[in-house]
Amino acid sequence: MGRYVARRLIQFLPVILGTLFLLHILSVLTIQIVGDPVRALFGPNAPPDAVIAQLQAQYGLDDQCLEQTGNPCVGMFIDRIGQYAQGDFGVNFRGRSVMEMFLERMPITARMAFIAIVFETVVGIFLGVLAGLRKDKFIDNFVRFSTVLLIAFPVFVFGSLALLFVGLKFGLYLRNSDWAPEWLGQMFQIGYNADYPWLSLTLPGFVLGAFSLAAIARLTRTSLIENLRSDYVRTARAKGLTTRRTVGIHTLRNSLIPVVTYIGIDIGFLLGGSLVTEGIFNVPGVGQLVFLAIKANDTPVIIGVVTILTVVFLVANLIVDILYAALDPRIRYE
Amino acid sequence: MSDISAAQAASTSDPAGGPEGSTGADRTLWGDVRYEMVRNPVFWFSAILVFIVLVMAFFPQIFASTSPTTSGACPLEHAREKPTWGKPFGYTNAGCDMWSSLVWGTGKSVIVAIFVTIGTVILGVASGTAAGWFGGFTDTVISRITDVFFGLPFILGALVFLAIFPTRNIVTISIVLTVFGWTSLTRVMRGSVISTKQRDFVDAARALGATDLFIIRKHILANSIAPVIVLATIGLGAYISAEATLTFLGVGYQRPTVSWGLLVSEGQTLATAGFWHLLVYPSSFIVVTVLAFILLGDVLRDALDPRSR
User: Fold this and answer.
1) Which class would CATH give B30-65+88-308?
2) Between chains, do B1 and A265 touch, taking CB under 8 Å as contact?
3) Which end of chain B offers a freer environment for a tag, N or C, measured as fewer CB atoms within 10 Å?
4) Nearest-by-Cβ selection for B156 from A26, A265, A271
């Protein structure tokens, strides 16, 4: 176990540096080809060159190599890594630190992602087990059909429809009715309500987790069906163990290994999806920060936040991989 | 991700083509696939939907005579008018006919998805074959590059670069999506090539003195491409959805282009004010199209995967 963790940590370093370099080289190339984002911001009404030069210096875009197409700007990358290591991810157009804004909004996004992960794993595994145990029966066909349908809904479509029909129509009815308790109405809220920091994130969290719920349900179903056919399950049955024990202890545990891996990959999807969900439900989290930065054309914020999110994603994946080794002894030997 | 692993399971396949109408044991894999699929109602359902979407994308004038971008097509006095019996789709926020906006917007999404799929298949098959066939150093380099690309969440990566571009059109959106999309195909192709490489007919060809390039062209590609086809079909749907998402976020198409993502983003704010049709119609177009491609890919995979029979 210790050796595996050590090796995984050593592998982690080149991947994170490589990903940051990829982000760097693609942005440098784009700037070299299409031109400076500071000039693009002003369009035809450009201010004096001195103002532009000052702004370029402020956002770290004054490097000479940005004018030479094809130059990878390695020096600039090393400078940036140094800044990132000190927690400096740039400033927005008003001069506020991106890291500061990120930390301020992080708890809300983390809460929403937590709701999404709990929702998708609990419901997804439950549906997957139901379908897997009754293969080709009504419930199996129902789960397969509804999950395909769910996968076909892009997050922004699902979110917009959920906001309209659940948050507004159904939620408003609940909030105005006499019988429904206050918390129930807040669960189907149309936006973030600071008085209910968890409840009002329920609906956005469900929307965020919906796609992965479908994926987890299908993954659980497939691997459960595969494992139910295996020899050790037959042995367990032959020993006279109850169905509850063969399915619950023997099969399910092994079937959940791919699900754990999926959750690691899923974190990247959740981060991308949070932009959309937070934009639609007006949740003041990290995603909304990017959403608003796109509307305001605030490129430094977009690059800064995406860089932080990429690091978060890679670290989360590292943790999931190490957990994975704890679950499945076979993979330690590669 | 279940798609990838399942697609890999379908990787052992026999050469393409087969005598028409052959039965039972002597059918080839692709003959089997055809046999399975023509009997599957889901295949017909999704294939017909895909066909309609493609026709709509390339010949919109068949479905709606006037493009919403021609002058005078969008009288403002109709703006946001609700559906009636005569006009079951109503009018958009700009006063254009909703039906013709949707029909003429199809092409924007579908063409990007086709470009991206072609691009990712070429890149993915080339790099995956190189990594799987040559192994060693080539494999290490290509695999590390794909690792690095997987470190960047797809939507986030695409978003950053589209945000830097001052103008976004079919070409820029396709390039950015291709750059971030090819790696999953590389991985699948690599796995598939590695399993094909170990089969006897490859050794036989080599013993007869065939060159690397000949074996790749004649034996490896035909026998390893199946999981890539499955993934690319599903990918067509996924890229339509990705393009619409990026457009919705504001880094995709821009007005006055007509596209599904733009219509949804416009409808999303107005739907809460009571104009539900502005949201529901464009949403259902996206969902039905994506669904058609996913179902088609699923059917194809089930037909290719011998374990599911």
Assistant:
1) mainly alpha
2) yes
3) C
4) A271
